[in-house]
Amino acid sequence: MYDLDGDGMITKHELLTVLMMIVGKQISKDQLVSIVERTMVEADKDKNDCITFDEYFKISENSDTEVKMSLRY
How many structural domains does the chain have? Predict the structure, then answer.
């Protein structure tokens, strides 16, 4: 869903693009960038600036995604 180019990884740009499509103008771009940055810190365990399928699976399995994607984190 987040892997827009189909390369098997989610980049910051892809995550931001999808979040912007989901929430539209309800949340500012700065707030969405903050969510993306926090998500990358949490999920990108190998620090390659992408979230792999395994990393995505682990974060979604081990955490409450709604909390991770919220502004109240």
Answer: 1
Domain assignment present for 30? yes
Selection from 49, 42, 41, 38 nearest residue 10 by Cα: 49
Judge residue 39's burial from the number of C-beta atoms within 10 Å of its C-beta, 0-12 exposed, 13-18 middle, 19 or more buried.
buried
Q: Which domain holds residue 29?
A: 9-66
Nearest in space to 37 (alpha carbons), one of 25, 24, 51, 26: 51
Q: What pTM was estimated for this model as a whole?
A: 0.76
Q: Which amino acid is at 60?
A: S
Taking residues 35-62, what's their average pLDDT? 90
Alpha helices in the chain (DSSP H): 12-23, 29-43, 53-62, 65-68
